[in-house]
């Protein structure tokens, strides 16, 4: 736990119970990172704790680089939780279908071809993850390939007019639209008086910034940034956060402290 005033934050949040939203990144935040992205699952206790949070404190929203279908499968025990996939380009709300942002639809064929090309052109040791409207290239099991993969990804981004986003041992090629975690945060906090955002990566700093902007526009709004941070995610995220925990395994304990204060 980072900030000395964490008790005050918990108390202020509990006072706003029912008017809050809790946003969570997935990989590295709710689920320990694995070499194989397909074998990543929520840490023990996460599902039960999120069920409690959504019943007693406010809505729970997952916002991740993963496809919405993958996230729904991992959170199948929490059908009321909205899952935003591909940084908000896809959403699946309670009981509804997966909806694709119209700005991303023209890129379906571009990404399919790009994934084929990545598999053909990148060296052994890279792992290509095809996500229908984006392509991620992982090099976690071969970190020495980072510069080569980055060069390839930069060239493809320029050639095809795509956005390039880097994460923890992964580079992701995305459609050029402005949809991102920040826009999800802005939309999903409308009419609320408090939001928490949990993230583990430098990419999550943008979501922190969106939360800052939301709070600046509304002095009564309580914004809480939580870094699920470690040596790999680095100091920048911890410094930008109000609270921090050391890993996904420690997220339930923080939320339990909050629930204990909630009437
Ligand atoms: Mg993450």
Automatic annotation (TrEMBL):
Per the record, the coiled-coil ranges are none
Q: What class of enzyme is it?
A: hydrolase
Look up the record and name the pathway of this protein: Glycan biosynthesis; trehalose biosynthesis
What does this protein need as cofactor? Answer: Mg(2+)
Which keywords, in A-to-Z order, does the entry hold? Answer: Hydrolase, Magnesium, Metal-binding
Keyword rRNA processing listed? The answer is: no
> Gene3D superfamilies annotated for this entry?
HAD superfamily/HAD-like, Trehalose-6-phosphate phosphatase related protein, domain 2
List the catalysed reactions: alpha,alpha-trehalose 6-phosphate + H2O = alpha,alpha-trehalose + phosphate
The EC number on file is 3.1.3.12
- The highest taxon in the source lineage is Bacteria
Family, per entry: Belongs to the trehalose phosphatase family.
What is the protein named? Trehalose 6-phosphate phosphatase
- Organism source for this protein? Dactylosporangium fulvum
């Amino acid at each position: 736990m980072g900030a000395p005033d964490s008790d005050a934050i918990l108390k202020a949040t509990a006072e706003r119970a029912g008017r809050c939203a809790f946003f969570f990144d997935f990989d590295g935040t709710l689920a320990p990172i694995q070499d194989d992205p397909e074998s990543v699952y929520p840490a023990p206790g996460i599902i039960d704790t999120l069920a409690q949070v959504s019943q007693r404190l406010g809505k729970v929203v997952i916002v991740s680089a993963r496809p919405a279908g993958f996230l729904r499968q991992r959170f199948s025990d929490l059908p009321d939780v909205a899952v935003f996939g591909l940084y908000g380009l896809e959403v699946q709300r309670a009981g509804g279908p997966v909806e694709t942002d119209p700005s991303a639809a023209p890129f379906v064929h571009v990404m399919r071809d790009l994934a084929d090309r990545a598999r053909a052109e990148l060296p052994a040791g890279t792992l290509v993850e095809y996500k229908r409207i984006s392509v991620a290239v992982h090099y976690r099991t071969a970190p020495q390939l980072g510069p080569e993969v980055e060069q390839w990804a930069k060239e493809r981004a320029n050639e095809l007019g795509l956005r390039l986003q880097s994460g923890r041992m992964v580079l992701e090629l995305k459609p050029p639209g402005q949809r991102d975690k920040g826009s999800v945060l802005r939309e999903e906090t409308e009419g609320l008086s408090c939001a928490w955002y949990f993230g583990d990566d430098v990419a999550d700093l943008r979501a922190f910034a969106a939360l800052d902007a939301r709070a600046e526009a509304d002095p009564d709004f309580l914004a809480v940034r939580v870094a699920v941070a470690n040596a790999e995610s680095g100091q920048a995220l911890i410094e930008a956060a109000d609270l921090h925990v050391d890993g996904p395994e420690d997220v339930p304990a923080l939320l339990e402290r909050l629930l204990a204060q909630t009437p």
